[in-house]
């Protein structure tokens, strides 16, 4: 009886850490994507729009420190962790060849879902990008733990060499600190559908080059190999170290970007270089967030309604990611209700919070009624045909 109770407790902790991370990650993604639709406001620094009030500026700073280029690596780490779990589970059941086949099928379907999301719904794609990363990294899943760490280090160093210079050149060519938003307010759904469809193969290629995720996916595979988020009690010291070091590096890498155009007025190339460092230190930020959620899974003793709701959303992360992207387009885009033309930085954050809370309540109700995420169920059906 004691062993059974312990096993159930460990399973609950295991699910809580990963699901909390996924649920809160979706909130960060909402906040990072909404500014892309504020097309009537002057560009600020890189992807931010200019703030007009003190609160706008504070929110921009918080976004640059906590969200921008941090949500994406967290998603990539959780994706890599999931690949490791699937590979180990399927290898034990069906052997390595079948495990690799299942993972590749999953990645191809993610690419398909992402293409539909970007081409039909007009959402910001990350599914194609992660699906391609999964296909590229499937062979590494059978590698030794030391090899994975080596691949992670090498890929991170490659990014460190070229990303700051690439973004330095992009911003210098742009002739401004801020990147302009392409929307004009005259767009209609049918006028832009051809452009969206043509851009489908370009989006993941552009993302992999300018906002690389391969190092973070490898970090996730590494964490998955040592079960750090599913057997947290054995890794408390390491989780604390990763949390403190990861978030410290992330903060240090964000400070130069935060200072630009308010305290510091560097050359355009230097500003782009600083943004490149912001991207790379975001790898550490994603790692720090993942470790932090691992610790939360240990220390949260009582699951209130909010914790249950976030975990419920995390269990259905694919479904709610797509829902959030569709809602964002419908509410903010000119092809929808066009709220992006009238929102400020502050009100856009408020819309993001309300959107997340609304869908969070739906996730909670689904959990209470034992309703699985429809896209999770569908992709399982496609992969396993059962």
Number of strands: 0
- What spatial form do the alpha-carbon principal axes imply? globular
Uncertain runs: 1-14
Distance between the termini: 34 Å
Helix content: over 70%
Radius of gyration: 21 Å
Give the helix/strand class.
Answer: mainly alpha
List keywords for this structure.
386 residues, mainly alpha, 74% helix, disordered N terminus
Q: In words, what does this structure look like?
A:
The protein has helices at 2-33, 54-66, 71-94, 96-121, 127-137, 145-174, 189-199, 202-210, 214-225, 236-259, 268-299, 305-315, 317-332, 345-368, 374-384. By secondary structure, the protein is mainly α. The protein has one domain. Helix 3 (71-94) packs antiparallel against helix 4 and helix 4 runs antiparallel to helix 7.
């Amino acid at each position: 009886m004691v062993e059974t109770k312990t096993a159930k407790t460990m399973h609950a902790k295991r699910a809580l850490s990963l699901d909390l991370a996924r649920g809160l990650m979706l909130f960060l993604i909402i906040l990072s994507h909404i500014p892309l639709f504020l097309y009537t406001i002057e560009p600020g620094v890189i992807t931010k729009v200019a703030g007009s009030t003190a609160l706008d500026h504070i929110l921009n700073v918080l976004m640059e420190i906590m969200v921008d280029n941090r949500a994406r690596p967290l998603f990539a780490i959780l994706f890599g962790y999931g690949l490791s779990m699937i590979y180990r589970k399927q290898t034990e059941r069906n052997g390595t060849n079948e495990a690799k086949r299942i993972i590749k099928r999953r990645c191809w379907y993610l690419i398909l879902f992402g293409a539909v999301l970007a081409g039909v719904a007009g959402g910001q794609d990350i599914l194609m990008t992660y699906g391609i990363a999964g296909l590229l990294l499937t062979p590494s899943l059978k590698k030794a733990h030391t090899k994975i760490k080596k691949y992670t280090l090498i890929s991170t160093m490659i990014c460190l060499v070229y990303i700051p210079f690439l973004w330095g050149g992009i911003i210098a060519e742009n002739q401004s600190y801020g990147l302009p938003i392409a929307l004009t307010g005259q767009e209609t759904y049918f006028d832009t559908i051809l452009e969206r469809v043509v851009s489908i193969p370009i989006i993941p290629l552009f993302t992999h080059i300018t906002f690389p995720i391969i190092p973070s996916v490898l970090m996730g595979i590494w964490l998955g190999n040592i079960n750090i988020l599913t057997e947290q009690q054995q890794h408390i010291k390491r989780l604390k170290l990763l949390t403190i070091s990861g978030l410290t590096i992330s903060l240090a890498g964000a400070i130069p970007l935060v200072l630009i155009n308010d305290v510091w007025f560097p050359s355009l190339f230097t500003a782009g270089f600083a943004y490149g460092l912001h991207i790379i230190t975001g790898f550490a930020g994603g790692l720090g967030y993942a470790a932090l959620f691992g610790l939360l899974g240990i220390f949260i003793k009582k699951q209130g309604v909010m914790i249950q709701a976030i975990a419920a959303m995390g269990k259905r992360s694919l479904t709610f990611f797509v829902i959030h992207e569709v809602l964002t387009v419908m509410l903010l885009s000119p092809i929808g209700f066009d709220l992006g033309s009238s929102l400020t930085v502050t009100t856009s954050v408020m819309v993001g919070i309300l959107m997340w809370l609304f869908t969070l309540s739906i996730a909670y109700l689904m959990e209470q009624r034992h309703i699985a995420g429809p896209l999770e169920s569908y992709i399982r059906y496609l992969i396993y045909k059962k």
